[in-house]
Amino acid sequence: MRFKRSVNLTADCFSSVFKLLLYRIVTGVIFFSLTYVILHLGLSEITGSAQFHALTSLVGEFFRALTTGDVDVLSAFQETAHAALLDMGELLGEHIASIAWSIVGVCAMYLLSRFFNGVAQFAVLDTMNDRLGSYARTRFSSAFFRNVGKGALYQVVYVPLAFVYDVLSLSACWFFFFFIPSLLPSWGALTVVFSLSLTLTALVCFQALKLTFISAWMPAMIVAGKSMAAGLKETAHCGRSFGRRFAGYLVAAYCIVVVNVCFGLFTVGSGLLITVPLSFVFLLAMQLINYYETTGRKYFVGYNRIAGEKEEPDSLE
Amino acid sequence: MNTVFGSWKYIFKNLWSVLPFALVPGVFLALALDHSAASAYLHGFLAGDPRPGFLVMLRTFGVIRMDSWLGGVFTVCAFLTVAVFAALMLSFAEKHMRLGKRTASGLLRQFLNVLPSAFLLTFFYTALFETYAIILSAILFVLSAIPATPLVYVLDVAAVLFFTFALLYVASLFYLWFPCRQMTGFGMYDSLLYSYRLAAGVRSKLILSFALSYAVLFAALAGAALLPYYAYLIVAAVLMIFCFLSFCIRMLTVYFETDKLDREDLLHNYRGYRL
Description:
The structure holds two protein chains of two kinds.
Chain A: H1 2-12, H2 15-47, H3 50-68, H4 71-94, H5 96-134, H6 140-178, H7 180-183, H8 189-214, H9 217-222, H10 228-237, H11 242-266, H12 272-294, E1 299-302, E2 305-307
Antiparallel strand pairs in A: 1-2
Helix pairs in contact in A: 1-12, 2-5, 2-12, 3-4, 5-6, 5-12, 6-8, 8-11, 11-12
Chain B: H1 2-13, H2 15-31, H3 35-46, H4 54-61, H5 69-99, H6 107-143, H7 149-174, H8 177-184, H9 188-200, H10 203-224, H11 229-258
């Protein structure tokens, strides 16, 4: 029932998908441009140097020799590549400070973009909450500015935590993909398929686990008006119906993967413009419905229809 | 129409009373503009080369001068004078609108009350405008990597229009923050919430009034950038004086209109004369 109601809520608030899409396109363009500028200003001396050009032309020459079968170039390649790499290493050593600052700048842009995307999710969740709680439609912009403070505080804590969790889960997936097959007998392609399946399963399970743990955090801040710390405390202690929520998120994660891959493949990527923001909106709807159900709150599922109330028996009249 | 042109009506009716407050910040704002960068950008743009480099773009669009230490001093002076004179002028204009009196008595007390908010708001709008300048320059810089020059021109114009609209929209969200704080005495957050609610009904008109002023300012400054430095400075100073006046006075006229307060400066006094 929760899954179905989440789907209904997503369909009811479908305009949020387009708002989120527009927001993500604008912020994506802004952060891409800023990252481009940082890299250009930081690394222009390296990319414009003779050593860099020598190395890139060497790589091009290698592939040309490989396709034409130029044995002379291929036999001398190791020596020339070694010399070019040494020169490049020396150049990189001279510009280590600008490289380090560029990396810091790119990381800062990445974290900032996640931060702003998270604040937008907060706003979408707030508009959905108004729909569930009072059957009202709130404007995205007013929800955004109403929640920018709370959302910012939440993102400051959530983004680093999620970043660490994602890195750890990706490391575990890497382990599943590369090390588990070595423990198995060699069955050729079947081993690769098995390890790929295992990796995907692990990835989906890790994401479902993360979503289950943070499930009540944002809704507690928006629905119950709790502080960021109180919301975190509530989501940590929200042991009730853990298995049910985990199962819901697991199925949701699989559905999201299938829908995105299918749309991506059959529309040559253009369908992802709709399905990616739709996936985020759907996950937010699930968080909200789960919170309302877990805390026993009533909510609107339609005009004059409230979930949680006893339904009147059918009349014969 | 009152929201869009109400401030201009007030300014021209009381020009000699409010103009002295705008002279110093207007001149410093003009000095804080980077003529050499604007001129280089515009000459290149008109000559068929819209790719001047990121720093030239940033210096053209930004309000913080980075070309010399003197430019930095002008920027600091502009910041300080805008905050101080905005607080003075708004105290003066508030009294005129509330009581119909254009006198200096009690001005200092109200000035000291609103000065911290004026500094905070000046810092906020400076940061907002500089963020706009950085983002716009970064996007124009990325667009300049496109090899087809006609496409660069079209996308440049589209980017300037889009991000200027975004800037004006964001500015309109916070526009009544200062007068709301000045008149109600609420805390920063409560006055922001209240001002947001007040401005919600007139947002499109506010954006239109900003857009009209900004379009004139942008076009005139772009035209003046082709002139020699001192001619540019005179044009920019005149424009900045009127922009400063319009930006500050519009805060009060729109606040009085949206909060449905009577404007005593519009009424006749008991002797039958206008004050």
